[in-house]
Amino acid sequence: MNTKYILNSLVWPQESAGGVQRRILSVLKRIRRVRLMAEAQHVARPVIFCVIAMVVAVAAMVLRGGLVTSWILGTIIMLIAGAMIVQVHWAVSHLGKQGDVLREASAQAEKHYVDVLRRIVRIVEARDEYTRGHSQRIGRLAEQIARRLELSAPQCELLNLAGQLHDIGLLAVSEGVLGKQANFGVGDFRTVQKHSEVSYEVLGPLEMLRPVLPAIRHHHERANGTGYPLGLKGEQIPLEARILAVADAYDAMTHDRPHRSAMSPTQAITELRRCTPSGYDSACVEALAVIVGMSIHIAPSATCDAPVISDCSVSQPRC
Length: 319
Fold this sequence. Notes:
Hypothetical protein af1432; mainly alpha; single chain
């Protein structure tokens, strides 16, 4: 898949996606420059200490000699010290103001970049009838689950954004693999497994997404350690990742895929409960059940001891 072509095909107000990317890189370079300049603020402390030492030396000279030359020399040194303090104060204040301006510019550039990425995801998904709208639905579901679990409003909103971008790493997987009508083979599955790490690397530079980057990286981990990329277990998996995992699995199960037909919401919730707690977080599953109107828990007829892998039909046991 040609990502450059996709970027160039985006409709961006007043400028091309390439122009936005160049502006983002320019701002990031300026931020790095200002960060280096901002380190000059640390010079202020030793300068002040030097000035204090100079004042003490002048005072000692005056007290010992009391000569006119000592007074004149002391006055000159004091004037120089005062000028140094004023200059350092002005430079630090100027750097602080410039840093604030560039931090704001960086935040705006990040928002533009995120918007570009969201457009890429929507365009790529729109080309496949099976995945159209998948990421937007994940974002909404993840936010709703987070609200049911009483996470803070900023966390809920970030989870919505994380849900929309969590699978951007699938751009690194060929359409031939993703569109297969049969179950994934071992080789194909290993290729698909890399997408969460790719998503993490692509989104890693964005400061605004830092709190939910672990969720994007680990949303395919499973409580019994059979997930990927690191095989985390239980509470080792971040709560936000567990939320995304449940939302992702539910949406995948309730929509058609090339290798299978969609389940009903009732069947999907029953399946998620069957794979709890060996695969999915029970609190997240029950929060989702309330959201879709299935709050009455019916005990499953079988337990899920096999590897739990959502929407990846591979040649190994699955829930």
